[in-house]
Structure formats: C-alpha cells, structure tokens
Amino acid sequence: MLRKELPTQIGLADYLGIDRTVITYVIDALVEAGLVERVQDPADRRARKIVATGRGTAHHAALEHDVRVAEEAVLRVLAANERVVFRSLLGRVARGSRDDLT
Questions:
Q1: Of the candidates 6, 1, 3, which has an alpha carbon nearest to the alpha carbon of residue 64?
Q2: Whole-angstrom Cα distance, residue 98 to residue 15?
Q3: How many CB atoms lie within 10 A of CB 69?
Q4: What is the model's pLDDT at position 75?
Q5: Helix axes of 9-16 and 20-32: crossing angle, nearest 10 degrees
Q6: C-alpha span between 30 and 90 (Å, rounded)
Q7: Are 39 and 49 in contact (CB under 8 A)?
C-alpha cells in the first residue's frame, strides 16, 4: 500500500493497526520533523494524503540501509536458502500478529 498509492490518514492508521485517534498525533510529529506532509486528495477534497518529503525519503533510505547492515550481521550464520525461509516465516508471524490486533 505505502509504495503503490498515497495513503490517507485513515488508510495509514488501518494499515499500521494504529487507532485512528492516535494517527493524527503521529503524523503531526512526522510533519513537524519535516519527514512527511499532508496534501489534499484530488479525488476527495475532505481527505488528506500523506506524502514523504525529500528529507523523509532520504531518512527512510538511510534506515533501510541500517536495517540491511544489522540484518546481515544477525543472519550471517545462516546459509542463503535458510535466510529466505527465515524471512518468510518471520513475515508470516508479523502479519499474523498484526491481524490479531485488528
């Protein structure tokens, strides 16, 4: 969802499993940090889309790099095929846990 379409605040809250009343404060903090901005949805003037700023995109890329480095350090004891299986199983666990919360 996040990479394919611009999420609304409500859509983002639903996707992340965050209460809709809390997501406003989360997004406010991200806006204040200069990482995202709210833009009017051309299809629905009442809705706001959440869009990463240049700073937000750069910050995300840096975080992805840091995660890859940490992941390599932790998973170095596994063979390449074992890493694939591990990531797949971990993804299933994470999705299942998120689904249990909703």
A1: 3
A2: 9
A3: 10
A4: 95
A5: 110
A6: 28
A7: yes
Flag whether the pTM goes above 0.85: no
Amino acid symbol at 16: L
Nearby residues of 24 by Cβ (< 8 Å), 6 or more positions away: 9
As beta bridge partners, residue 38 has 50
Residue 29 near residue 19 (C-beta atoms within 8 A) = no
> Other CB atoms closer than 10 Å to residue 7's CB: what's the count?
18
Mean pLDDT by 10 residues, the chain (102 residues): 66 85 93 94 85 95 96 95 94 78 55
Helices (H), 1-102: 9-16, 20-32, 54-75, 80-101
Integer Cα distance of 34 and 70 in angstroms = 26
Residue 39 and residue 52: Cα distance in Å, rounded? 10
Strand partners, 51: 37
Q: Is residue 32 within 8 Å of 56, Cβ to Cβ?
A: no
